[in-house]
Amino acid sequence: MVSLSDRVDRAIAKAILAAEGAAIGGAIGAAGGPVGAAIGGTIGATAGLIIGDQATVFPLDMICIPAYQAFMIQGTPAMQIYIRAGETLIPTGGNVEDVQEVLEQPKPTKRRKKNPWIQFNKKFTFRAKRKNESSQKYLSMRTQAAKRAYNKMKRGGK
Questions:
Q1: What is the secondary structure of 43-101 as a DSSP string?
Q2: Taking the model in full, what pTM does it have?
Q3: Would you kindly state where each structural domain of the chain is located, as residue ranges?
Q4: Which of 61, 101, 112, 121 would you call most buried, defined as having the most Cβ atoms within 10 angstroms of its Cβ?
């Protein structure tokens, strides 16, 4: 179960990602003047909220480099990570517990053996309820008829 403090931590992490996205989008959009900065900031904040909340599946093979060396597209960065297509990036918000919650599979519950009376009763058809008949009277008559039919079936009848 997720506690309130975990939810607050996630909300703070999402807000930080949205703020970072807004700053990056605003910086990119600043080339188009103040209007471009405002539009870029809005798009960046929206992207930060979406990315901060969902796992990302990489659609193709990628090579990741450290963010502070992003300007070195032509150069050789300090570290490179090869990511295959189909791998998933799980947002953690800085908490390892978040990743463990996502990765844990729920244990399959053992199914109970189906009760033959309940199975029979679901399939049993009875006449429609009459206008002047109460629901209680109708249900008790239906149950009695179902009991008789079930016992007859168990004894070898049809």
A1: HHHHHHHHHTTS-EE-SS-EEE--GGGTT-SSS--S--EEE-TT-EEPP-TT-HHHHHH
A2: 0.33
A3: 1-55+91-108, 56-89, 116-154
A4: 121
Query: 77-120 pLDDT, tens per residue?
Result: 777 777 777 776 665 555 555 555 656 667 788 888 889 999 99
Rg of the Cα trace of the chain? Answer: 31
Please identify which residue in the block is written with the tokens 């949205």.
18
Please give the Cα distance from 24 to 9 (Å, whole number): 23
Number of residues that this document lists for the chain: 158
User: In this structure, what is the dihedral angle of CA atoms 94, 98, 103, 107, given to the nearest 10 degrees?
Assistant: 160
Q: What is the helix (H) or strand (E) element at residue 25, kind and residue range?
A: helix 4-29
